[in-house]
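Researcher: I'm preparing a figure for a lab meeting and need a structural model of a single chain. I don't have an experimental structure, so a prediction will have to do for now. The sequence is pasted below. Please return the structure as tokens so I can convert it later.
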Amino acid sequence: MIDAPDRMAMEKPLYSITALFASPDALIRAVKATVDAGYTKYDVHSPYPIHGIERAMRLRTSPLGYYALAFGLIGALSAIGLMTWVTLVEYPLVIGGKPFWSWPAFVPVAFEITVLLASVLTVVSMIVVFFKFPNNSHPLHDTPYMKRVSSDGFGISVQADDPLFDEKAVRAHLAGVAGAEIAAIYFDPEELDHGQKLFDLRFIGLLAGVALVVSGGTYISLNKVAFMTPFSWMMEQSKLKPQAHSSLFVDGKGMRTPVPGTVARGFLPYAFSGKPDEAGRNLANPLLATQATLEKGREKFATFCSPCHGNFGRGDSRLRGQFPNPPTLMSDKVRNWPDGNIYHVITEGQNIMPAYAGQIGRDDRWAIVHYVRALQRAHFAKESDLK
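Model: Understood. Here is the structure written out token by token.
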């Protein structure tokens, strides 16, 4: 009578002999002994990475690095070639006075394409070439050995295609290095000579079906479902848009004029609109002429005032004739103005000068007034100012 293990060996070819070890240190000692014994086709399994195991196994450099180098070079040369063709042949443009072939502009794009192709295609190569995707079966899967080394065990699997492999000798070797639960792993018939199934019609049909379902579901979700209730609540809101028609009001207009005499919350209307003389008599600068206030006034003056008035307020515009030069702020008229008059001109504008109330805040306008006074004092400095 033939025992069950012998019958299995007759029906299924042997893949490897496995053994379990109690600790990472015992596993490393067993790996070193296996290497010294001359075995080259074996693998080590543990539930977590073990420091130093790669040196004990004397692993060779992975060929994936060559794939990454090749794909990276393809990405860099493709990006540079495409941009060269576009800038020199198909669509040459002078940008900022630079030459057509301006290689510094190519660096960011070439770098991104290099990294993208090197990373993505290296992973794809690993999955397809080394793992033979979509073939996902392996003799070790669903074995008691794999269940142990995936949780709390440490193991070695010596493969049957090793040049020195002899089942009895391998069993004796593993037992001699303190291996436990030594077992034989066999191939399933479907795992033998399966070849690469990446271009199998069934697999391609599955990919096509998944693509159709995903693209169809995406189209329906974004073009149909998103416009149905309740998913359309972001698009159909209970509000009136500017210039939109409204059936709520008799005149059919959605935009309403403010109610006379009302003031928006947080807004203080300018009380001297169109009244420069009253502004000069009634307005006083509420800010103290501190260093911080003068610095803020200098910053805002340089941003909004100096393009026309010049850096020192002398009417020497920095626009070089592109806009009419305004009067100097050093004139007797402006020097004798109360602070309120200067504030009023900044707020409402004067002649061709536009109003700046919408661009410069109330306190910043008063800070500019302080800075204008400082410029005037510096322009007409007295001897006492220099002490």
